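re: the backbone from monday

yeah here it is again, tokenized this time
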């Protein structure tokens, strides 16, 4: 299972799931229905690095059940993760150039 980190930008329980440095999904407490059964929602997937339809999501009755649905990242190759890293790095460079007032060439 991938390491998880609590999302500091969410007031309710929300965990960001990582494979090394790549954010591969999220598990969060489903809130908003007073009196409803406690539920957890999960989402697996990242782009680039996967094709449309390969991402998955759903709900579960407990955190561990939601965590057990994270089979998505086990089907990825190192090339998939590298695609994501290259996109992340390119985006960082793009915003740095914008801040310096330079034009950015589209990939």
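seq for it, each position gets an aa:
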């Amino acid at each position: 299972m991938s390491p998880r980190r609590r999302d500091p930008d969410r007031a309710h329980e929300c965990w960001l799931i990582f494979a090394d440095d790549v954010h591969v999904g999220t598990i969060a407490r489903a809130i908003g229905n007073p009196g409803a059964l406690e539920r957890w929602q999960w989402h697996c997937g990242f782009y680039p690095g996967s094709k449309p339809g390969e991402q998955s999501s759903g709900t579960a009755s407990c955190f561990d059940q939601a965590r057990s649905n994270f089979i998505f990242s086990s089907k990825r190759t190192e090339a998939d993760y590298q695609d994501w890293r290259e996109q992340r790095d390119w985006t960082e460079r793009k915003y740095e150039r914008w801040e310096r007032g330079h034009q950015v060439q589209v990939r």
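Residues 78-99 form the longest helix (22 residues). The chain is about 25% helix and 25% strand.
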